[in-house]
Amino acid sequence: MSASDYLSVALLITGAVFFLAGTVGLLRFPDLYTRLHALTKADNVGLGLMIAGLALQAESWAVVGKLLLIWGLVLLAGAGVAHLIASGALKQGVRPWKK
Amino acid sequence: MSDRGQQAWLSSLLLRGLFLAFIWWSLSGGVAASWWFGVPAIALALFVSTLLLPPQRLVWHALLRFIPFFLLRSLLGGVDVAWRAFHPQRPITPALISYRLRLPAGLSRVVMLNCVTLLPGTLSAALDENILQVHLLSGRESCLAELRQLEVRVAHIFDASLRSGIR
């Protein structure tokens, strides 16, 4: 394995840890709003690291471009959907959990 | 239209054209013959995009400076929330606050709302006129500072002036 392969492995594994964190947050956090925090932010970083790991293995720059587009679209979709779910929940009177 | 306004319009159009060309290039895998379809498709997409969203005045260097800021802060956001999720005591003190937006309505606000959700500890929950409901995971003061800083940076990109809001 070359140095870039090792770096890819490290990035992919770290990315997976963030995806795991998002899921752990989804299970452990107390309400809808805090769960949205976990999902959007941790998954965004997890995906970003995985994209970086895969980009190192890409055969052409066009594939790198495609990977970056995927990340950008997921970012937009994630942030947009989180906002819509939260505003929908507020409208329906779902109260945020307080300590 | 003034000279300056026309120039901004053209440079914004050029940026969009380049971005669309980048999308085509990466989707088609850079095959030269594909541009026979690509160029008309890009021209059509550019035309439709001007109808859907009129070209905006963008400050390029502010946009370029925003990218590393956003990447770093969103990475911190992920690390912060991952740490809280894994921590045995689950250290969160959530709150819902109202933030009076000083950005003008339009694209700059959409950018602001989307970024708020990805930065550490904040989630844009609802927008009602100028009041943005922000859900905080913890740390009220640091989040408020973060929101203000983000708003200033977004305003720079769009060359928008922030109205001095009454808080």
Radius of gyration of chain A: 17 Å
Number of domains of chain A: 1
SS-based class of chain A? mainly alpha
Oligomer: heterodimer
The greatest interface here is:
A-B, 46 and 40 residues
Relevant terms:
heterodimer, A: mainly alpha, B: 167 residues, mainly alpha, three-stranded antiparallel sheet, 11% strand
Protein topology:
The complex is a heterodimer of chains A (99) and B (167).
Chain A lengths: L2 H26 L3 H26 L3 H31 L8
Helix pairs in contact in A: 1-2, 2-3
Chain B lengths: L2 H26 L6 H18 L7 H27 L8 E6 L6 H12 L3 E7 L2 E6 L3 H19 L9
Antiparallel strand pairs in B: 1-3, 2-3
Helix pairs in contact in B: 1-2, 3-5, 4-5
Commentary on this structure:
- The complex is a heterodimer of chains A (99) and B (167).
- Chain A is mainly alpha-helical and 99 residues long.
- Chain A has one domain.
- Helices cover 84% and strands 0% of the residues of chain A.
- Chain A is built from 3 helices and no strands.
- The longest helix of chain A has 31 residues, at 61-91.
- With 167 residues, chain B is mainly alpha-helical.
- Chain B has 2 domains: 3-52; 60-158, no CATH class.
- Chain B has helices at 3-28, 35-52, 60-86, 107-118, 140-158; strands at 95-100, 122-128, 131-136.
- In chain B, a hairpin with a 2-residue loop joins strand 2 (122-128) and strand 3 (131-136).
- The two termini of chain B are 36 Å apart.
- The chains are: A mainly alpha (99), B mainly alpha (167).
Short note summarizing the structure:
With 99 residues, chain A is mostly helical.
